[in-house]
Amino acid sequence: MGGFLSNLKPENSLEVLNASCGPVRGNIYRHDEKIINGYLGIPYAMALAKELRFTKPVAAEKWKEPRDCYKYGPGCPQSGDKISTLLPPGHRKFSEEHCLSLNVFTPSWKSEDFENGYPVMVYFHGGGFEIGFSSNFDDYSLSGTLPLKEVIVVTVNYRVGPLGFFTTCDDVALGNYGLWDMTLSLHWVQKHIKSFGGDPNCVTVFGSSAGAIGASYLALSPHSNKLFHRYMSMSGAAWWDTAIRPKKLEAEICERFAKHHGYSGNDSESLLSWYKDQPVIKFLETTGVETKASGMGHFTPVFDGDFFPKPFDQLQKMAPKLDVLVTVNEYEGLGFLGLFPNRTSDLVVIASVFGPDVVKNPEEVQRKVLDFYMKDVDQKDATAVDKRLIEFISDSYFNFPALETVRHATRAGNNAYLASFDYYNMDAKDPYADWFPFRAANHNSELKYMLGEGMGKFEPIEEEFKVMDMVQRLVTNFAKYGNPNGKPSEPQTWQKFSFDKPFSYYKIDYPKSEMKDNFQNGRLKIYDEINASGEKNRGILYSIQKEKEEKFYYLWTWTYWVRRGIPGPIGWPFIGVFLNSLDENFPGPLQVMEWTKKYGKIFGFTEGLMKTLVISDPDLVQEVFVKQYDNFYGRKRNPIQGNSEKEKRTNLFSAQGFRWKRLRTISSPTFSNNSLRKINSTVEDCALELMRHIEEQTSEGQQIDMLTFYQEFTLDVIGRIAMGQTDSQMFKNPMFPIIKKLFQGSYSRLFLIGGVLPPFLVQIVRQILLKTMKMGSFRKINEITMNAVNSRVKQREEDEKNGIEPGEPQDFIDLFLDAKAGDIEHFGEDNEDFTKSTSYTNRQLTTEEIVGQCTVFLIAGFDTTALSLSYSTYLLATHPEIQRKLQEEIDRECPDPEITFDQLSKLKYLECVMKETLRLYPLGTFANSRKCMRTTKLGNVEVEAGTMVQVDTWTLQKDQNIWGDDAEEFRPERWESGDEHFFQKGGYIPFGLGPRQCIGMRLAYMEEKMLLAHILRKYTFETGPKTEIPLKLVGAATTQPASVWMHLTPRN
């Protein structure tokens, strides 16, 4: 043992650092002109008195008097019979009571690059969870490595052996105390590292061997994975089957050890009592105690249901985003073959990994694996056989877990880097190398180049100093920037892991390091085969059989349309075409239109488990929306939106079956001609208010973005006719930025994600999303709506007390409150026998449904009408002859300052303009979708229940077979005949079709007519320098122009 600077001794500083944990004095480590300050043996947990043995650690209290932190604290008592072969007697001090300490090495100078403090690297030692301690690294040597590259290094002691991992598999002793120690040390870092010059918002956890596995476990556990921001696993990773055991199996080993030493009880309490009474030296005596389990050690982490509440694959998906860097050495297993000195068969080595606790048919799997590694090997060539077994140990213990780590991290959306450390100095003074069959980079070989000390005395030659600089630069770059290459401006020689090159890795060597594409020369495919075969026992690393079936079902669903012989984009396994829906610069409806050009008028695609059939044939549209309405009465809904039949606050848009019919029946009177006539003056008042703003903003000839102006107008209208708003709030409405945010893509994309989630994750993500919504825009909108409803209820109660009779409903809230059904929360309609003709007379609403209706009318009324106005404006500006014709009609029919409801009805050419606009730029096309509720046939295609049917409205409404050769042109005259049935039924559906046609269509037309009539009487729309021609269309769920900049030129 010995670090490369272990001949040097630090100076004890007399200066006191008033740290937040308590005042401390530390060491001074000089390296030429630079000084590193070291504070050793800082307690992060309360002293472990004997009664606290086998309990979770408790944070240390702050001390008041200066503490001398000149020496490492004692290590945690070791365990196992291998300690004597690895550590000479008296090598270090050990103490159970005071072992939970840590050490801080920090640069003494102020950084110019990191204003918030130095990045922090927290290191956990290895040792198979049975041995190891932070003082194993010479402090002077360590100070001369990573801290000189402007990071703070923290090294930690944690409990090992039975003190860290004893379990009874029940609440008496759950185990994993060593992992809870690690977690508490990270809490200490978050709370106190600032006073040592560190940045608690830039923490990297790293470790080697068992410490690397521990770092990976910390990244998975919800108890720890929010305490740091990236992690490095070197020569070890969480996805190692035998590094963790089922708690029942580990409890049996703990009991077997006790009985080997005289314990005679048979219950958890007495077993715990026996372990508490043992001197720590007893835990070294493992010789002769059979584990009867796969793996090496006696005392290991367990899947306890506490630190690890779910299988690892689920925890990975739930974990926060953490950058990850994983390394292995070229021949990790080189030293481990010595664990089988007297083996009678090579199969013994294989069996140590694939026992009955890991696979269901161990003998079959062991033989398969042995044959795989020994193919083409002369069994008489002992050296060749040993090398293959070393490769097996390397792969099963380290290489495949490393690959699985970056795979799972990448699938979960994390940046992941994979490398193999292949450099080895053949002349190195490595005392253990003489035990090995050959020399090469092996387990922990990289450690001395990173921390200044490894196995044996480290006396680096000149070349090795260059390797040290290279390795330390890579890992500190990762700690600083989440990228081992450094800043983005630096050459990106180490590429992130990608499934495009699934066996690509970075080979770290000297003089040249480079990317390679053959990680472990293809050997790891045998482990993928075992995992995919169903042989592997599940429930810890991988979810139980049910989720394997779900995985198979995902693949089965992915090929659904291919197997049905129906064309369409295939997308990717598990997610289908989901990724296409996330590009805001290529909205989904336009992507579907491109697919129609390629695959025809009927095709299919998948999004996770959701199967969608796309149609653009008008006869099929008529079938779905009208003729077979009873089979397609549900809308296409994302699983994450929940069940509309059970949601208390559902709305007319989302509801289906009897609930939809009830909501539709109650809401319909709001949009009758009689009701619209009553609000004509309110809509006109909003239009005149907008005119005042237009005049102010264009007085000097400026261009204005009409999209924003129209959104202000539509929000003002819906606020006054639906939300109890008494006067105009235009351009000062606090709700405007809130509701606009809903249409900027992020919320839409969050909902879209639900389509590709496995069922067991849908509810989890749904709850997270609902919680997020409650804290964001949706919460504010719901609060505003609820306040408006409650205010009106209170007013009604006061009127009733004062003997005031309720008058005619004034707005949506009044209408809905007239139908309020006492304190009923949910009617629980059963749609099993639903048909559109079924008699159903319930005309009541719950309070939650009232809020739901008002909210959806607010959101729908804001967006769609504003978009239609924007598109109309663009088309009129780019077709001046049509605009002049329209102005002539308006001048003729609306000569008075005020425009009446009857005058609006006479603007026939304006109706033609609006209809033609919506033909070329259909709105809310996602609403033109239905869910098949009962298996039926569409044309020659059988559509199974649960399949979504979506209309490609953009293709349908520009189909030359329907609209003629000029289908792409803006020609309002095509509507002048007044006979819309001239066109094939099902060929024009801007507001849907059939019973679920948009209820607000008349209101939208009224708003558009009123506003355009007022504007065009006074102004002419003209394009300008800012006008995008053609319009740039963006969006996720909806398609909208990025902007509609216009000149509004006053008319003579």
Protein model, in words:
Keywords: Heme, Hydrolase, Iron, Metal-binding, Monooxygenase, Oxidoreductase, Serine esterase. Its cofactor is heme. GO terms for molecular function: carboxylic ester hydrolase activity; heme binding; iron ion binding; monooxygenase activity; oxidoreductase activity, acting on paired donors, with incorporation or reduction of molecular oxygen. InterPro entries: AB_hydrolase_fold, CarbesteraseB, Carboxylesterase_B_AS, CM06B1-like, Cyt_P450, Cyt_P450_CS, Cyt_P450_E_grp-I, Cyt_P450_sf. There is one protein chain. The chain is α/β, with parallel strands linked by helices. It has 2 domains: 11-336 and 416-488, Rossmann fold; 588-822 and 840-1050, Orthogonal Bundle (Cytochrome p450). It is 38% helix and 12% strand. It contains 34 helices and 28 strands. The strands form 7 sheets. It has a 12-stranded mixed β-sheet with strand order 1-4-5-7-9-8-10-11-14-15-16-17, with helices on both faces. Helix 28 crosses helix 31 and helix 28 packs parallel to helix 34. Residues 545-550 and 823-827 have low confidence and may be disordered.
Descriptors for this entry?
Rossmann fold, Cyt_P450, 2 domains, alpha/beta, elongated, Cytochrome p450, 1052 residues
Mean pLDDT, to the nearest integer, reads 87
Number of helices: 34
Beta strand count: 28
Task: Trace the largest sheet across and list its strands.
Answer: 1-4-5-7-9-8-10-11-14-15-16-17
